[in-house]
Amino acid sequence: MAVCLVLPLAGLASPWPCERLLIAGNSEYPPFLWQPNDDSNELKGALPQLLTEIFDGLEVTANVRHIGSWARVQKLARNGDIDLVAGAFMTEERAGYLDYVRPAITRIPTVVWFPRGREFPFRRWSDLEGKVGSTLIGNSFGQAFDDYAANHLRLETVRSIEQSFRMAMAGRVDYVLYEALQGRVKLGRNDWQDQFTASDQVVSVENLYFAFPKRSRCNTQALREAFANALRLAQNQGRIDALIEENISRYTHH
């Protein structure tokens, strides 16, 4: 059930520079975002639903679209060619071209996914040294881990996380680095849940944010503040958690 999260601005001229926002994110990120099929530029998930509810209250159209890989989304955001990034961890590089909205959407733990039968001890990041892992192009798992991985780990980056899991099943990599919840629902949808186990020890736990590109003409302090207030209300009402649970079921039982 949709919930109006802010009071409408009926009868008033719009205070925002844009009546329509182009919004994109990581299309490989269920239950938050996913592409229903390869030929569609539509995105489904908890975040499109939440954004529609928030921006309906602000009388702004939220156009949440699949526009390419996560790496391409970040490039477009850097250039100001999209108006909002739906779901990103904070890094020093991204903070240079994104205005992050607080509060965070939620906190996301990342784990090591092992091919079943080929597990190895993982208690600290150094346990991954000498192994070959895989994850998505452009993925971040927090600034501290990103810095460590760049200097000490071998990670094969690919365009889809299914490709990473297939590489692991084929023995081409030793592990997959991916978020715990997203990995669980991806494996469940592909009926691969019996092929992998997740590490008990997390790699990192990071806040997931909405972020407005600094170079977007739609990005104003007033819009960010109104959006943040509506997001905080959604959190306090339990709406975000409800949408996440609803979309876990929707994605897994497609």
From TrEMBL:
Pfam families tied to this protein: SBP_bac_3
Solute-binding protein family 3/N-terminal domain span: 20-250
Superkingdom of the source species: Bacteria
Record has Electron transport as a keyword: no
Keywords for the protein's UniProt record, in alphabetical order: Signal
Similarity section: Belongs to the bacterial solute-binding protein 3 family.
Protein name per UniProt: Solute-binding protein family 3/N-terminal domain-containing protein
